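Following up on my earlier thread - several people asked me to post the actual chain instead of describing it. Fair enough. Here it is, all 292 residues.
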Amino acid sequence: MKDYLVRGMSMDGFVKAVAIRSTQMVRRGAQIHQTTANATAAFGRALTACSMMGNMQKVENGSMTLQIKGGGPIGSIVCVSDATGNVRGYVYEPNVPLVEKYPGKLDVGATVGTDGTLTVIRDLQMKEPYVGSVELVSGEIGDDVTAYFAQSEQTPTACALGVLVDVDQSVKVAGGYILQLLPGAPEETIDALEKGIKRAGAVTAMLEQGMTPEDILGQVCGDLGIVFMETTEVSYKCYCDRSRVTSALLSLGKKELTEIYEEGKTFPVECQFCDTVYEYTPEDIAQLVDTL
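Reply from S.P.:
Thanks for posting it. Predicted structure:
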């Protein structure tokens, strides 16, 4: 079953909403980086949030980078989304020890840490990218995304994320939603939304019951009702290619490339976002040296 996200608006026009099923993209990210359970949960939440936030930009050829540095054992998490919501990413330390809040509940906050920041870099195809950063609230990522929108973009937001890791370390379900209040939203809209969020409960429980992103938004919006506006398939997608890797190698300079050539071995370059390995023979390196 393919991943997709859906965008909508409450019937009264005061709530923007997006929800996603991200199970396959999180599985792919975990497979590439061989993450342990806690790292999978944290990385998966970040990928899920980044996909929705990237899609919300609606800037053709734009991109959005989400960086989370909390001082926890996972180190830093970096995720990049295109304007559609396709994502790629990596974690500094994929092999995180098991930490649970209670049996069966992974402690993502302890994995990420709270001594640090969440940073959003928006490439809107302008001269300079927009950069916003906030201190981490809980390390649970959903709370931290909520704080980012409230503090950096002055938009009242509710973000819920969930990744359910099975006993065999595989990703069972993953997804989430983001709700945003538009200016002028009356108290009754806010009250109805708060009640809907409380009634809906955890994202993973809804997904495990087989609920779709449409079902989830219908549940959290409750009596407000919702009009669905757009559905988009999304995936874990890396844009690396040999020409980009070659450009990166050229940036090393003539001296370092000559040293690589003199070793007389094939030089492998692995993409940090995916599991693609680009191999350069000594002859390939020699040609690069000649161009400098």
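The chain has a mean pLDDT of 94. That should answer part of your original question.
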